[in-house]
Design a protein that fits this description.
Blueprint: E1 5-9, E2 12-16, E3 20-25, E4 34-38, H1 49-52, E5 56-61, H2 67-70, H3 73-78, E6 82-85, H4 91-94, H5 96-102, E7 126-127, E8 133-136, E9 139-145, E10 154-160, E11 163-169, H6 192-205, E12 211-214, H7 223-239, H8 248-253, E13 256-260, E14 263-266, E15 273-277, E16 282-286, H9 312-319, E17 323-328, H10 334-337, H11 340-347, E18 350-354, H12 358-362, E19 381-383, E20 388-391, E21 394-400, E22 409-415, E23 418-424, E24 427-428, E25 439-440, H13 452-463, E26 467-470, E27 476-477, H14 480-500, E28 515-518, E29 521-525, E30 529-537, E31 544-551, E32 557-559, E33 562-567, E34 572-580, E35 586-597, E36 600-613, H15 618-626
Parallel strand pairs: 4-5, 5-6, 6-7, 11-12, 16-17, 17-18, 18-19, 23-26, 29-36
Antiparallel strand pairs: 1-2, 2-3, 3-4, 8-9, 9-10, 10-11, 13-14, 14-15, 15-16, 20-21, 21-22, 22-23, 24-25, 26-27, 28-30, 30-34, 31-33, 31-35, 32-34, 35-36
Helix pairs in contact: 6-7, 13-14
Length: 630
C-alpha cells in the first residue's frame, strides 16, 4: 500500500484519504509548527502530523459539503481546529443534524446530492469570504466561487514563490474530466449543474494559474488547457440535453444588453437586473438576485440558491462601469435581492430601499411573507415614497406599487431622452415585445389587495412612461392602447373579486386575513417576557368590539390572557400582547391568537413561531439537566 502523504511543493502536502486533503504549512509563531488543511476527508491527516513536520493544524477550509470531503470534521472540532465553510452551504455543516431531521424523503424531487452531507452538525468558526482574500492560520488564500459539482462549491488560490496554485475541490478531476456527472444533476431534465461548471471553468481559466490541485485526480500543470477542455466537453454535454444549443460563453461574457445607451439589462440573471450608467462611470443597479444563472435547482433550502457576481467583469470590460454605487430593490423577494449583501461586501455597493420594504429586508421573518432571503440585508438609505432624489445627472422618483406584493415600489427616471419606469414583477408580459397581452401577477400571500392594480394603472397613466421594464419579461413600449389595456385588466380583476367574494356582507379582503402576529418568527431565551404585536382589521363598516386570546404552548403564560379592544369601522388597530416564555429549549414553538370581531368568530386566526433557547452558562444548564447525583 502506498504511503498516504506526499509533498507537492515547498510547504504543500497531499494526504490520500476519502478525498485528497491538502496541507499548507505556515510560518508558525513562537516556534510552533502549524498548518492549515484544504478539506478534511476522514481526518486521517491528524494521524500524520509528525510526518508533515507539524505540531498541529489550526484551521480547515472546505471546498464543499460532501461527506468524502468532510466526514472527519468532528475530529477536527475535537482537536480545536477552526472550521471555515462556503457561505451557501453553511447549514449543511452547522445545521446538518437539523437537515437530516427535516429533509423530505417522500415524493422527493430534489436531485442535488445534498444527502451526501455529514451525518451530524459540526461547529463552524466562520464563512469563507468569496471574491476576497483572507488569512487562515497565517496562510493567505483567495476564495473563488466555482459552483457546479455543488451549488456552493468554492476554490482556493494560494500565491507562493511567484506561483499561483488553485485547490479546486471537485470542479475538475483531470483535463476535460469531472469526478462526478451525477452530482451536477440538480433537477429533473435540466442542466443547471453542468452549465455552472462551464461558467466556473471559463472564469478560472482566465486567472493566471500555475497548477490545479483537485480533490480527486492528479495535479494539473496546464490549468488553462485543462479547464478549457472541460468547458468545451461540458458545453457539448449540455447541448445534447437541450432542444437548441446554449451559448454559455456569450451568457458569461456578454450578459448585458442595451435598452438605451445608458440603460442596460442583465439578460443572464433571474430575475432581470437593470443598470443605469452615469457619464462619470458610476452605476446604479435595480434588483440584484441570481446573477448569470443557469436555472434554479430543486429545493428551497439555502444551499439550493447561489448568488454570485459573475457578470461584473463584463459590466466593467464592455460598458465602462467604474463603480457600482447603489443597488435598489423593486421588492423584497429573494430572486431580486439575494446578491445584495455580496455586492456590498465585495464592491462596497450601498443598498438603497424604499421605506415600505426596508424593515422586511433588515428583518426577513418579522412578517409571514413568502420568498424572503435567509439573511438580513442592511439598508444604507431609506427612500421616501412619492419623493424624488438626485443621483449624478439623474432624478429618480420612487412610487408605491402594490399588487404583486404590498411591499413594492416603482422607479421613474429619464435616460437618453426617454422616461423609464422600473416595475419589478407587477405584471407578466407573456408575449413578445409589442403584443397586447398582460397577466396581472398578484399573489395572495404577498398581501395583495383587490384595488391594487387600479392604483398601479392610475400611476402608469399619470407618469406616462415611454418604456416599462420588469423583472422577468421583455421591455414594453408604452402607448395609450397599452395604458388602456392595463386599466381594463385592473377593472376586470376587481370585478372578478366582487363577484366571487361576499364583500357586500363582510369585507374579508382579497386574502381573507383579518389578524396577523409580528414578529412571525423570533428567538427568545427561556424565562423571558416577549411582546407580540397583533394587527387587526375590522371587516364591518361600523365600529366593533374585538376579543383576542393569546394561545400559548403548555407552561407559558399570557399576560393578560384575554384582551378586548374597540375597532373603528373598516379600520386597522395594533394590540400588544405579552407572553412569558418557558423551556425546554426547542425550535418552532407555536402560538396563535384566537379572534372574535363583533359576532364573527374567527378562532385561532393567526399564528407565530418561537425558537426557545437556553442562555444560561453551559455548566449550569448541564447540572440542571442531569439532576442530583444518586
Amino acid at each position: 500500500m502506498s504511503k498516504p502523504v506526499s509533498q507537492l511543493a515547498d510547504k504543500i502536502f497531499r494526504i490520500a484519504d476519502t478525498c485528497h486533503v491538502y496541507v499548507i504549512a505556515s510560518d508558525g509563531e513562537g516556534g510552533e509548527r502549524t498548518g492549515i488543511a484544504v478539506d478534511f476527508g476522514s481526518g486521517l491527516v491528524l494521524d500524520h502530523l509528525d510526518e508533515l513536520g507539524l505540531d498541529r493544524l489550526t484551521d480547515v477550509v472546505m471546498t464543499h459539503h460532501h461527506r468524502d470531503q468532510a466526514q472527519g470534521l468532528a475530529r477536527a472540532a475535537a482537536a480545536g481546529i477552526r472550521i471555515h465553510v462556503p457561505p451557501i452551504e453553511q447549514d449543511l455543516f452547522a445545521e446538518a443534524s437539523e437537515f437530516w431531521r427535516t429533509r423530505p424523503i417522500y415524493n422527493d424531487y430534489v436531485l442535488r446530492q445534498d444527502k451526501f452531507t455529514i451525518l451530524d452538525s459540526v461547529p463552524v468558526h466562520g464563512l469563507v469570504p468569496e471574491y476576497r482574500r483572507a488569512t487562515f492560520g497565517g496562510v493567505e488564500l483567495e476564495v473563488v466561487p466555482t459552483p457546479g459539482h455543488t451549488t456552493g462549491s468554492v476554490s482556493y488560490l494560494l500565491r507562493r514563490g511567484g506561483r499561483t496554485v488553485a485547490f479546486t475541490g471537485d470542479l475538475i478531476h483531470s483535463p476535460g474530466k469531472v469526478w462526478s456527472l451525477a452530482s451536477t444533476q440538480w433537477s429533473y431534465t435540466e442542466n443547471e449543474g453542468p452549465a455552472m461548471i462551464v461558467l466556473s471553468a471559463l472564469q478560472l481559466a482566465e486567472r493566471d494559474l500555475d497548477q490545479l490541485l483537485p480533490s480527486h485526480g492528479e495535479p494539473m500543470d496546464d490549468p488553462r488547457a485543462a479547464l478549457e477542455l472541460l468547458a468545451e466537453r461540458l458545453e457539448a454535454y449540455v447541448d445534447a440535453r437541450r432542444p437548441h444549443p446554449w451559448d454559455l460563453r456569450r451568457h458569461l461574457h456578454e450578459p448585458y444588453g442595451h435598452l438605451t445607451e445608458h440603460l442596460l439589462n442583465n439578460r443572464s440573471s433571474h430575475s432581470l437586473s437593470y443598470v443605469l450608467v452615469s457619464r462619470t462611470g458610476a452605476a446604479m443597479v435595480f434588483d440584484y438576485g441570481y446573477d448569470v444563472t443557469t436555472g434554479l435547482p430543486g429545493g428551497t433550502d439555502r444551499a439550493s440558491r447561489r448568488p454570485w457576481l459573475a457578470s461584473l467583469p463584463a459590466l466593467r470590460r464592455n460598458h465602462g462601469v467604474r463603480d457600482i454605487e447603489a443597488v435598489l430593490p423593486t421588492h423584497y423577494h429573494d430572486d431580486h435581492v439575494a446578491g445584495m449583501n455580496l455586492l456590498r461586501d465585495v464592491e462596497g455597493t450601498e443598498v438603497w430601499a424604499p421605506e415600505n420594504m426596508a424593515d422586511i429586508l433588515e428583518n426577513p421573518l418579522v412578517a409571514d411573507l413568502p420568498c424572503t432571503w435567509w439573511d438580513p440585508i442592511p439598508v444604507d438609505r431609506r427612500l421616501a415614497l412619492g419623493r424624488s432624489f438626485q443621483w449624478h445627472e439623474y432624478e429618480i422618483t420612487v412610487h408605491e406599487l402594490p399588487g404583486h406584493t404590498l411591499y413594492a415600489a416603482a422607479y421613474e427616471f429619464e435616460v437618453d431622452g426617454l422616461t423609464v419606469l422600473v416595475t419589478g414583477d407587477q405584471q407578466d408580459g407573456m408575449g413578445q415585445l409589442g403584443e397586447r397581452r398582460e397577466i396581472l401577477n398578484y399573489q395572495y400571500r404577498n398581501r395583495f389587495r383587490i384595488g391594487d392594480y387600479q392604483h398601479s394603472a392610475a400611476l402608469y397613466r399619470r407618469v406616462r412612461p415611454d418604456l416599462m421594464i420588469s423583472g422577468h419579461w421583455q421591455a414594453r413600449w408604452v402607448d395609450d392602447d397599452y395604458l388602456e389595456l392595463l386599466e381594463r385588466s385592473a377593472d376586470e380583476l376587481v370585478h372578478h373579486h366582487e363577484q366571487l367574494l361576499p364583500l357586500d356582507e363582510l369585507d374579508l379582503g382579497a386574502d381573507g386575513v383579518l389578524a396577523r402576529i409580528e414578529p412571525y418568527f423570533s428567538t427568545v431565551p427561556a424565562g423571558r417576557r416577549t411582546i407580540f404585536r397583533v394587527t387587526l382589521r375590522n371587516p364591518y363598516p361600523d365600529p366593533q368590539l374585538a376579543r383576542l386570546e393569546l394561545v400559548t404552548p403548555v407552561g407559558w403564560r399570557a399576560e393578560p390572557a384575554v384582551t378586548e379592544v374597540s375597532l373603528d369601522g373598516s379600520a386597522e388597530h395594533v394590540v400588544e400582547m405579552e407572553a412569558v416564555v418557558q423551556g425546554p429549549a426547542q425550535r418552532r414553538n407555536r402560538l396563535a391568537v384566537d379572534v372574535q370581531i363583533g359576532t364573527l368568530r374567527l378562532g385561532q386566526h393567526a399564528e407565530a413561531l418561537v425558537d426557545v433557547i437556553d442562555d444560561r452558562p453551559a455548566d449550569v444548564a448541564d447540572a440542571e439537566t442531569s439532576g442530583p447525583a444518586g
